[in-house]
Specification:
The complex is a heterodimer of chains A (82) and B (146).
Chain A (H helix, E strand, L loop, with lengths): L1 E6 L1 H7 L3 E5 L6 H11 L1 H7 L4 E4 L2 E2 L11 E5 L6
Parallel strand pairs in A: 1-5
Antiparallel strand pairs in A: 1-2, 3-4, 3-5
Chain B lengths: L4 E5 L5 H6 L8 E8 L3 E2 L2 E10 L1 H18 L4 E7 L1 E4 L3 E9 L2 H18 L2 E7 L2 E4 L11
Parallel strand pairs in B: 1-5
Antiparallel strand pairs in B: 2-7, 3-4, 4-6, 4-8, 5-7, 8-9
Helix pairs in contact in B: 2-3
The chains are: A alpha+beta (82), B alpha+beta (146).
């Protein structure tokens, strides 16, 4: 299945793109999806270790959410607005 | 009709205009936070900031914060406006206005809102300073999921 992965701020600079279409196996959860994304973009793990946040369909993910075809994922660092 | 609002903009913010949008007749006080770009941080000189947002999610998170504030505090209306893009020194990056029958609840809600916004709303700032630039690290890695 296909998902869209979005990057912002520091993660967008680290991977050199703002979005990426990603192929994933069916029935995997958010934690596994994050691990697969980090494998494809080693610069994320190198720069940010395990501190990255993941959102699935514009909601913070805690890791056990099941990812579906067409979902919008986003990977970013701790927010710094205000 | 005066009511809650939450918006993102790339335009210059008029703080007074934001505050006036949430003032109903039953209120006696509006507390407004005007957050703006600081030039000096611990001896380091900032030249300008660039703000970036995950816009649809940022709006959803702002809406959630307002709903939570409405539950926790005796307030009437909340307005939040965050600017994005390049901001020069002294320019307003965020306005949070809270109106209430009495000031105490408005002060408390405003403080709570800015604290939570800095923790949960997906907006990031890049600081360009004399000698370099950096995406500012958020203070909090733990975001409640719900």
């Amino acid at each position: 299945m296909k998902v869209q992965v979005l990057f912002f701020g520091a993660t967008a600079e680290a991977v050199g793109k703002r979005e990426f279409e990603f192929s994933l196996d069916e029935n995997i959860n958010a934690d596994k999806a994050r691990a697969e994304i980090l494998e494809v973009f080693p610069s994320l793990r190198k720069n940010f270790g395990n501190s990255l946040l993941l959102a699935v369909n514009q909601e913070y993910a805690n890791g056990d959410e099941i990812i579906n075809n067409g979902d919008e994922l986003a990977i970013f660092t701790a927010v710094s607005g205000g | 009709m005066k009511s809650d609002f939450f918006e993102l903009t790339t335009e210059t913010i008029d703080v007074g205009e934001v505050a006036r949008r949430i003032v109903p007749n039953e209120c006696g006080a509006t507390v407004t936070l005007d957050g703006y770009v600081r030039q000096w941080t611990k001896g380091k000189e900032t030249l300008y900031l660039i703000y970036e947002a995950y816009e649809p999610m940022a709006l959803r998170e702002m809406e959630k914060l307002i709903a939570q504030a409405q539950e926790q505090f005796e307030i009437t209306h909340v307005g939040i406006l965050h600017r994005l893009g390049k901001l020069e020194i002294g320019e307003t990056s965020i306005v949070i206005s809270v109106s209430a029958p009495h000031r105490k609840a408005a002060f408390e809600a405003c403080e709570w809102l800015i604290k939570e916004l800095k923790r949960t709303v997906p907006i990031w700032k890049k600081e360009v300073y004399v000698g370099g630039e950096v995406w500012v690290k958020g203070e909090n890695q733990d975001v409640n999921v719900n």
